[in-house]
Write a structure and sequence with these properties.
- Helix content is 43%, strand content 16%.
- By secondary structure, the chain is an alpha/beta fold.
- It folds into two domains: 152 residues, Aspartate Aminotransferase, domain 1, CATH 3.90.1150; 214 residues, Type I PLP-dependent aspartate aminotransferase-like (Major domain) (Aspartate Aminotransferase, domain 2, 3-Layer(aba) Sandwich).
- The strands form two sheets. It has a seven-stranded mixed β-sheet, sandwiched between helices.
- α9 links the parallel β5 and β6.
- α5 packs across α11.
- The protein is globular, with a radius of gyration of 23 Å.
- Bound molecules: pyridoxal-5'-phosphate.
Length: 392
């Protein structure tokens, strides 16, 4: 009781700044970015690293601020935060990394070294290491370098037969790209089954797939040995944070592969602020009323579609992507020739607005607009601006 009251008072003291940060809109000036000559943008792309990931809610900022006021033994904090996360996320074990990409690296290092300290130290040298990582061709993610830097050689397969045939005494890991499941010939369950039968650890990169929240335990329960999420995407944790979940022995093997230890991941530093920030983000995420959030997203979709209702030659559509970023989006379609406007031109006009608006060009006469990272009434600004562009 006493502790929670003190925490409450501490948080009350922090609330004004945190609240201001949370409610400030893109139109009100940001002193820090203005002083650097950076213009904040309206994010119609979604949770992407290049625009800053997501925005941390006040609880997360507050946890980072509090964490930053004390010295602590960092490896002990990492262990305790991991244990708490494991409990919250119904995983045998968990650890915080400095992003999903870093989780791929330290997870790969754990699989390749198999908990052997000498093997871990020698990476990326391959002598005596089971260095081959098998991946379906359609599951190439662009993050292969994160495995290769550990000495891994990525072997591409397509069918179950090819997968079975590719496994040999050099195989150290099997990599699965969660969002790639519909594109591959081997689904998650079959992939896991082969891994288990042949004694090869499986890793599932589900970085952008934390919606719905049940996904946070779905894949570990399915049987993947390691599962990865980005901390700075849907979870709204620190941008430089990630989650590595899964088998206890592998998480224990991954710890010494990362900062502050001198392994291959020494350059992947996770500070006390990220550790406490990501924990606070996960705690919040599990409590948030996701249905209410979903209704808010639907309202934004309806608002943007409504703004374009009378725009001639323009058709809008509500779209919920499968697996990755599984939340409502707005797609805008038109005939480029008929309107004399290309996707590129519309996107450039949006970027040239008073408040630059970034959206994804999905093809000819096709914009894909993500609305879940918009703040306050930004969706109205986007709807208005699109209407102006299309009716000009
Ligand atoms: C975003 C993403 C990553 C990288 O995540 P970071 O947290 O930025 O390191 C890795 N894999 C997939 C599939 C992603 O979408």
């Amino acid at each position: 009781m006493k502790t929670s009251r003190r925490r409450l008072l501490q948080s009350a003291a922090l609330t004004p700044a945190a609240a201001a940060a949370a409610t400030r809109t893109a139109s009100s000036p940001s002193t820090i970015y203005a002083s650097l000559g950076i213009k904040p943008v309206i994010n119609g792309v979604g949770v992407v690293t290049v625009l800053g990931g997501s925005l941390m809610p006040p609880e997360v900022v507050q946890a980072m601020e509090e964490a930053g006021r004390y010295f602590i033994p960092l490896p002990e904090l990492q262990k305790k935060v991991g244990a708490r996360l494991a409990e919250l996320l119904q995983s045998p074990a968990a650890m915080v990394t400095c992003g999903a990409a870093s989780a791929i690296s330290v997870g790969t290092a754990a699989c390749l070294s198999q908990g052997d300290a000498a093997k871990l130290r020698q990476l990326p040298a391959r002598d005596g290491i089971r260095y081959e990582v098998i991946q379906q061709k359609s599951h190439r993610s662009g993050y292969e370098h994160q495995m290769e830097m550990c000495g891994a050689k990525v072997i591409a397969v397509e069918s179950r037969e090819e997968l079975e045939a590719a496994i040999n005494e050099r195989t150290g890991m099997m990599f699965f790209l969660n969002k790639g499941e519909p594109l591959g010939k081997i689904n998650a369950e079959e992939f896991i089954k082969v891994g288990k039968a042949r004694g090869i650890p499986t890793m599932n990169d589900a970085a952008s797939d934390a919606t719905p929240k049940e996904n946070l335990w779905k894949y570990t329960k399915m049987g993947f040995d390691l599962v990865i999420f980005s901390g700075g995407k849907a979870l709204r944790g620190p941008q430089a944070s990630g989650l590595l979940l899964g088998r206890k022995d592998l998480i224990e093997a991954a710890h010494p592969a990362m900062s502050p230890f001198g392994g291959i991941g020494r350059g992947m530093k996770v500070g006390k602020e990220e550790l406490c920030g990501l924990l606070a983000a996960v705690e919040r995420y599990l409590k948030v009323d996701h249905q209410a959030e979903w209704r808010e997203l639907e309202a934004r979709v309806t608002s943007i579609r409504g703004a374009l209702k009378n725009a001639k030659g323009v058709r809008t559509e509500r779209v919920v992507p499968v697996i990755q970023n599984e939340v409502p989006h707005v797609d805008v379609h038109w005939d480029e020739g008929a309107l004399g406007l290309t996707s590129q031109q519309v996107s450039e006009k949006l970027m040239a607005s008073d408040q630059p608006i970034h959206v994804q060009r999905a093809g000819k006469g096709h914009l894909h607009i993500s609305i879940w990272m918009m703040r306050g009434n930004e969706h109205e600004i986007v709807g208005r601006r699109l209407r102006e562009i299309f009716s000009a």
